[in-house]
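I hope you will forgive my troubling you with a question about protein structure. The matter concerns a single protein, recorded as an amino acid sequence and a row of backbone structure tokens. Please examine both parts with care and let me know of anything in them that strikes you as inconsistent. Here, with my thanks, is the record as I have it:
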Amino acid sequence: MTAGPDTRSADGTPGVPHERLTHAERVRRRPEYEAIYERGTRLSGRLMTVFVLVTDRPFTRLGIAATRKYGSAVQRNRAKRLVREAFRRNKLQAGLDVVVIPRREMLEADYAHVEADYLATLRRRGWKPRGA
């Protein structure tokens, strides 16, 4: 068994590597979220609130807190997909835990606006994507 993303399509031919977040790149447990809320830096954007905690991990992790107060499951899942895509396309420096809380305004926004708000919110504190 190989380590790393599978680059073969269903018929076994070579394909494009998967670009999904790995298990290690996700904030998973409630105590981790609570630690980020308590010790992290809170940043407010037009479409989201972002908490960032500096850690000693060799990678950056993402957590998304879209509660039922936000809307239906379809709305919550769309917001999470948009945030994950912005995070995936704009990888930050290693050693950060990021938790995003979407706002209702995100329901009407397209991906370009979500990405721009995510980056603008992080840049206010000096965090920039790698290569930027």
